[in-house]
Amino acid sequence: MGMSNTTVINFNTDPKIKRELTETANEMGLTLSSILNKLSKDFLDDKRIEFRGLEIPNARTIKAIKDADKEYKEGKTAGPFSTVEAMRKSLGV
């Protein structure tokens, strides 16, 4: 039997948290193990921990992006603008 380069760490967490972590990691094409390994390595390297969320657009922003994409495909886009005033006029402000 060969030597393993990994070990197992067990810790307790809420089942809902584990499920959501696993689902989110999978949505990003990652495994929960890879996420926890990266977090652990960063913590050891920096001797600190940083909490930052992935910027995911909300429903209003998603709709605005889809509307803009539709307008672009329909040739309804404005610009580029040669002046700020021309841009403001196009925006109705």
What does this structure look like?
The protein is mainly α and 93 residues long. It has a domain of 33 residues. It is 55% helix and 0% strand. The protein contains 4 helices and no strands. It is elongated. The protein starts with 14 loop residues before the first helix and ends with a helix. The model has no long low-confidence stretch (mean pLDDT 87).
Mean pLDDT across all amino acids: 87
Proportion in β-strands: under 5%
Provide a count of the helices: 4
The helix fraction, in percent, is 40-55%
Count every beta strand, where a strand is a DSSP E run of 2 or more residues.
Answer: 0
Largest sheet: none
Broad shape: elongated
Give the topology.
Layout (H helix, E strand, L loop, with lengths): L14 H13 L4 H15 L12 H15 L10 H8 L2
